[in-house]
Amino acid sequence: MAKLFDYNNIVWRFMGRVADLFFLTLLWAIGSLPLVTMGASTTALYYVALKMVKNQEGYIWKSFWKSYRENLKTAAGIWCIMLGMGAALGFGLAVSFPGQGAGDGAFFWGLLILTVFYLFWLTLVFPLTARLDTGIKGLLYLSFMTAIKNFSWVMFMVISSICVAALGVFVFWPLLLFGAGIIAYIHGLVLVHVIFPKYNWNN
Fold it and tell me: Is 88 in contact with 114 (CB distance < 8 Å)?
Protein backbone atom coordinates (compact mmCIF):
# COMPACT_ATOMS: atom_id res chain seq x y z
CA MET A 1 0.00 0.00 0.00
CA ALA A 2 2.85 2.38 0.80
CA LYS A 3 4.21 1.93 -2.73
CA LEU A 4 0.87 3.04 -4.15
CA PHE A 5 1.32 6.50 -2.63
CA ASP A 6 5.04 6.72 -3.39
CA TYR A 7 5.63 9.64 -5.75
CA ASN A 8 8.28 7.59 -7.56
CA ASN A 9 5.72 4.88 -8.31
CA ILE A 10 5.51 4.29 -12.07
CA VAL A 11 1.79 5.16 -12.09
CA TRP A 12 2.37 8.52 -10.40
CA ARG A 13 5.32 9.27 -12.67
CA PHE A 14 3.12 8.55 -15.69
CA MET A 15 0.30 10.74 -14.39
CA GLY A 16 2.80 13.49 -13.66
CA ARG A 17 4.12 13.30 -17.20
CA VAL A 18 0.59 13.44 -18.62
CA ALA A 19 -0.10 16.55 -16.53
CA ASP A 20 3.15 18.11 -17.75
CA LEU A 21 2.22 17.46 -21.39
CA PHE A 22 -1.21 19.02 -20.87
CA PHE A 23 0.35 22.11 -19.26
CA LEU A 24 2.95 22.33 -22.02
CA THR A 25 0.25 22.13 -24.71
CA LEU A 26 -1.69 24.89 -22.94
CA LEU A 27 1.38 27.13 -22.81
CA TRP A 28 2.03 26.46 -26.50
CA ALA A 29 -1.54 27.46 -27.40
CA ILE A 30 -1.32 30.65 -25.35
CA GLY A 31 2.10 31.51 -26.77
CA SER A 32 0.84 31.02 -30.32
CA LEU A 33 -1.52 34.00 -30.03
CA PRO A 34 -1.15 36.08 -32.12
CA LEU A 35 -0.24 33.80 -35.03
CA VAL A 36 3.05 35.59 -35.72
CA THR A 37 4.42 34.28 -32.41
CA MET A 38 3.67 30.62 -33.18
CA GLY A 39 7.29 30.06 -34.20
CA ALA A 40 8.59 31.25 -30.83
CA SER A 41 5.93 29.23 -29.03
CA THR A 42 6.80 26.07 -30.98
CA THR A 43 10.49 26.61 -30.29
CA ALA A 44 9.73 26.91 -26.56
CA LEU A 45 7.55 23.79 -26.79
CA TYR A 46 10.50 21.80 -28.14
CA TYR A 47 12.94 23.40 -25.69
CA VAL A 48 10.91 22.00 -22.78
CA ALA A 49 10.14 18.67 -24.49
CA LEU A 50 13.83 18.02 -25.17
CA LYS A 51 14.56 18.70 -21.50
CA MET A 52 11.72 16.37 -20.50
CA VAL A 53 13.25 13.53 -22.49
CA LYS A 54 16.49 14.06 -20.57
CA ASN A 55 14.63 14.58 -17.26
CA GLN A 56 16.02 18.10 -17.00
CA GLU A 57 12.85 20.16 -17.46
CA GLY A 58 12.72 21.80 -14.01
CA TYR A 59 9.84 24.30 -13.81
CA ILE A 60 7.95 24.06 -17.10
CA TRP A 61 6.47 27.56 -16.87
CA LYS A 62 9.86 29.17 -16.31
CA SER A 63 11.66 27.09 -18.95
CA PHE A 64 8.98 27.71 -21.58
CA TRP A 65 8.92 31.48 -21.26
CA LYS A 66 12.70 31.68 -20.99
CA SER A 67 13.06 30.01 -24.39
CA TYR A 68 10.14 32.03 -25.77
CA ARG A 69 11.79 35.34 -24.92
CA GLU A 70 15.28 34.34 -26.01
CA ASN A 71 14.20 32.98 -29.40
CA LEU A 72 11.30 35.31 -30.21
CA LYS A 73 13.01 37.31 -32.96
CA THR A 74 14.77 34.40 -34.68
CA ALA A 75 11.80 32.04 -34.43
CA ALA A 76 9.38 34.69 -35.70
CA GLY A 77 11.57 35.27 -38.74
CA ILE A 78 11.79 31.55 -39.48
CA TRP A 79 8.04 31.13 -38.93
CA CYS A 80 7.21 33.91 -41.41
CA ILE A 81 9.49 32.33 -44.03
CA MET A 82 8.09 28.83 -43.51
CA LEU A 83 4.50 30.11 -43.40
CA GLY A 84 5.01 31.95 -46.69
CA MET A 85 6.48 28.86 -48.31
CA GLY A 86 3.64 26.70 -47.00
CA ALA A 87 1.03 29.13 -48.30
CA ALA A 88 2.68 29.19 -51.74
CA LEU A 89 2.79 25.39 -51.89
CA GLY A 90 -0.82 25.12 -50.72
CA PHE A 91 -1.99 27.60 -53.35
CA GLY A 92 -0.01 25.81 -56.05
CA LEU A 93 -1.50 22.45 -55.10
CA ALA A 94 -5.01 23.89 -55.11
CA VAL A 95 -4.81 25.47 -58.56
CA SER A 96 -2.91 22.58 -60.19
CA PHE A 97 -5.04 19.74 -58.81
CA PRO A 98 -5.65 17.23 -61.62
CA GLY A 99 -8.81 18.15 -63.49
CA GLN A 100 -8.46 21.88 -62.88
CA GLY A 101 -6.76 22.40 -66.22
CA ALA A 102 -5.03 20.62 -69.07
CA GLY A 103 -1.45 19.56 -68.46
CA ASP A 104 -1.51 20.41 -64.75
CA GLY A 105 -1.03 16.84 -63.50
CA ALA A 106 2.77 16.74 -63.66
CA PHE A 107 3.05 20.15 -61.99
CA PHE A 108 0.72 19.02 -59.20
CA TRP A 109 2.75 15.89 -58.44
CA GLY A 110 5.96 17.88 -58.53
CA LEU A 111 4.52 20.32 -55.99
CA LEU A 112 3.30 17.41 -53.87
CA ILE A 113 6.85 16.03 -53.66
CA LEU A 114 8.13 19.49 -52.70
CA THR A 115 5.44 19.66 -50.02
CA VAL A 116 6.69 16.41 -48.49
CA PHE A 117 10.21 17.84 -48.25
CA TYR A 118 8.72 21.04 -46.83
CA LEU A 119 6.98 19.07 -44.05
CA PHE A 120 10.25 17.30 -43.22
CA TRP A 121 12.01 20.67 -43.09
CA LEU A 122 9.26 22.21 -40.94
CA THR A 123 9.45 19.27 -38.52
CA LEU A 124 13.11 19.93 -37.69
CA VAL A 125 13.55 23.68 -37.95
CA PHE A 126 12.00 24.61 -34.58
CA PRO A 127 13.64 21.85 -32.52
CA LEU A 128 16.97 23.00 -33.93
CA THR A 129 16.09 26.61 -33.15
CA ALA A 130 15.52 25.50 -29.55
CA ARG A 131 18.90 23.77 -29.45
CA LEU A 132 21.27 25.82 -31.63
CA ASP A 133 22.15 29.48 -32.10
CA THR A 134 23.33 29.90 -35.68
CA GLY A 135 20.99 32.62 -36.97
CA ILE A 136 18.04 32.28 -39.31
CA LYS A 137 20.02 31.34 -42.40
CA GLY A 138 22.13 28.78 -40.52
CA LEU A 139 19.10 27.18 -38.86
CA LEU A 140 17.21 26.90 -42.14
CA TYR A 141 20.21 25.28 -43.81
CA LEU A 142 20.99 22.89 -40.95
CA SER A 143 17.39 21.78 -40.49
CA PHE A 144 16.97 21.07 -44.21
CA MET A 145 20.22 19.12 -44.52
CA THR A 146 19.56 17.21 -41.28
CA ALA A 147 16.10 16.24 -42.53
CA ILE A 148 17.58 14.91 -45.78
CA LYS A 149 20.36 12.97 -44.04
CA ASN A 150 17.94 11.43 -41.53
CA PHE A 151 15.07 10.89 -43.96
CA SER A 152 13.61 7.72 -42.42
CA TRP A 153 13.62 9.02 -38.85
CA VAL A 154 12.12 12.37 -39.84
CA MET A 155 9.48 10.47 -41.82
CA PHE A 156 8.62 8.65 -38.60
CA MET A 157 8.35 12.01 -36.83
CA VAL A 158 6.01 13.39 -39.51
CA ILE A 159 3.84 10.25 -39.51
CA SER A 160 3.63 10.25 -35.71
CA SER A 161 2.42 13.86 -35.82
CA ILE A 162 -0.28 12.99 -38.36
CA CYS A 163 -1.37 9.96 -36.32
CA VAL A 164 -1.68 11.92 -33.06
CA ALA A 165 -3.65 14.67 -34.83
CA ALA A 166 -5.92 12.17 -36.60
CA LEU A 167 -6.62 10.26 -33.38
CA GLY A 168 -7.53 13.50 -31.66
CA VAL A 169 -9.81 14.73 -34.44
CA PHE A 170 -11.53 11.49 -35.46
CA VAL A 171 -11.29 9.09 -32.51
CA PHE A 172 -10.69 10.67 -29.10
CA TRP A 173 -10.97 14.46 -29.02
CA PRO A 174 -9.53 14.92 -25.46
CA LEU A 175 -6.20 13.84 -26.95
CA LEU A 176 -6.06 17.28 -28.57
CA LEU A 177 -5.61 18.77 -25.09
CA PHE A 178 -2.24 17.01 -24.94
CA GLY A 179 -1.55 16.87 -28.68
CA ALA A 180 1.24 19.41 -29.11
CA GLY A 181 3.03 18.16 -26.00
CA ILE A 182 2.77 14.51 -27.06
CA ILE A 183 4.05 15.24 -30.56
CA ALA A 184 6.97 17.30 -29.25
CA TYR A 185 7.83 14.60 -26.70
CA ILE A 186 7.81 11.83 -29.34
CA HIS A 187 9.98 13.99 -31.58
CA GLY A 188 12.24 14.70 -28.61
CA LEU A 189 12.83 10.99 -28.06
CA VAL A 190 14.02 10.61 -31.66
CA LEU A 191 16.11 13.77 -31.58
CA VAL A 192 17.83 13.16 -28.24
CA HIS A 193 18.52 9.45 -28.72
CA VAL A 194 19.05 9.17 -32.49
CA ILE A 195 19.67 12.38 -34.44
CA PHE A 196 21.38 14.84 -32.09
CA PRO A 197 24.12 12.42 -30.95
CA LYS A 198 25.34 12.19 -34.56
CA TYR A 199 26.25 15.88 -34.49
CA ASN A 200 27.08 16.32 -30.78
CA TRP A 201 24.00 18.53 -30.35
CA ASN A 202 23.07 17.05 -26.97
CA ASN A 203 26.02 18.74 -25.27
Answer: no
Distant-in-sequence, close-in-space partners of 197: CB < 8 Å, separation ≥ 6: none
The answer to the question of residue 139 being in a domain is yes
Domain of 110? 7-199
Give the count of beta carbons closer than 10 Å to the beta carbon of residue 128.
24
Residue 1, domain member (yes or no)? no
Please tell me whether the overall predicted TM-score, pTM, comes out greater than 0.85 for this model. Answer: yes
The dihedral of CA 100, 106, 110, 112: what is its sign?
positive
Is position 36 within any domain? yes
Q: What is the DSSP string of 7-57?
A: TTSHHHHHHHHHHHHHHHHHHHHHHT-SGGGHHHHHHHHHHHHHHHHTT--
Instruction: Give 90's DSSP letter.
Output: H
Q: Quote the pLDDT of residue 37.
A: 97
Cα–Cα distance measured from residue 162 to residue 165, given in angstroms and rounded to the nearest whole number: 5
* pLDDT value of residue 190: 98
| Cβ atoms of residues 44 and 64 within 8 Å | yes
pLDDT value, residue 3? 53
**Number of folded domains in the chain?**
1
Q: What is the pLDDT of residues 151-174, one digit of tens each?
A: 999 999 999 999 999 999 999 999
What is the spatial distance between Cα 127 and Cα 50, in angstroms, rounded to a whole number?
A: 8
The answer, yes or no, to whether residue 103 has pLDDT greater than 80, is no
